[in-house]
Amino acid sequence: MVYKTRNDGRKIDELRPMEAKAGVIPNADGSAYFKIGKTTAFAAVYGPRELHPRFLQNPKTGILRCSYSMMPFSGSGERIRPGHSRRAQEIALVMTASLNPVVDLTAFPNSVVDIFIELPQTDAGTRCAAISAAAIALADAGIPMKDMISSVAIGQVDGTVVADLDYSEESYPAIVSDIPIAMLHNSKEISLLQMDGEISKEDLIKAMEMAKVAIEQVYKVQVQALKEKYQKVKQ
């Protein structure tokens, strides 16, 4: 175990600084900004609105649809190619699957709720920031939700389990694992659990326990963003 001091000086269970705002895009039905470290995500929600083409409609419920995009010069590594890559499509599907358990669209048959995510700056943890931003935006849009969903990545760097890896840790020259996790606040249901890399069973259990505490911190930032938005509306 060589990695004992984190590159940016954080404790092993410490998240990067976070900030969030709701209602940042005037023309959207709901929107949010979520930043963790140098990773920044903007989410815009449109709908419910009629779904076209009609053969995609579900007469029993509305559907959720996500679009995910990183701007060309947003990454810490190589330049991101413009357009929808296979990775962006995969993350969009992961986001949809992660968010579906919290939304209730049964009152909106044949409709769609679209969530557009743009990341102008990234430094690891992009899908987690996107999910956390999208959840705030859904709440801001007044979409019926059963719970709030929050997301963070836990991982292992050269034998040490750490919270919220940044790019320097993801690219550390040793065995590294990255585990994006999304969790519902009240039920503690896990709606996203992925892993890139290798990790032992014991360290995976340790990572999951660390994630429960870390996600609670993300949740508090999300709720505060919504409170600040609606306190301003009341004034």
Strand order of the largest sheet: 1-2-3-5-4
Rg over alpha carbons: 18 Å
CATH class: Alpha Beta
Mean pLDDT: 92
Architecture per CATH nomenclature, i.e. the level-2 architecture: 2-Layer Sandwich
What's the helix and strand layout?
Blueprint: E1 18-22, E2 30-36, E3 39-50, E4 63-70, H1 86-99, E5 111-121, H2 126-140, E6 149-157, E7 160-163, H3 167-170, E8 176-184, E9 190-193, H4 201-234
Parallel strand pairs: 4-5
Antiparallel strand pairs: 1-2, 2-3, 3-5, 6-7, 6-8, 8-9
Short description:
Helices cover 29% and strands 29% of the residues. The protein has four helices and nine strands; from the N terminus they run ββββαβαββαββα. The chain has helices spanning 86-99, 126-140, 167-170, 201-234; strands at 18-22, 30-36, 39-50, 63-70, 111-121, 149-157, 160-163, 176-184, 190-193.
Q: Which key phrases capture this entry?
A:
single chain; 235 residues; alpha+beta; Ribosomal Protein S5, domain 2; five-stranded mixed sheet; four-stranded antiparallel sheet; 4 helices; 9 strands
Explained architecture:
By secondary structure, the chain is of the alpha+beta class. It has one domain: Ribosomal Protein S5, domain 2 (2-Layer Sandwich). The protein is 29% helix and 29% strand. It has 4 helices and 9 strands; from the N terminus they run ββββαβαββαββα. The strands form 2 sheets. Strands 1-2-3-5-4 form a 5-stranded mixed sheet. β1 (18-22) and β2 (30-36) form a beta hairpin. α2 runs parallel beside α4. The mean pLDDT is 92.
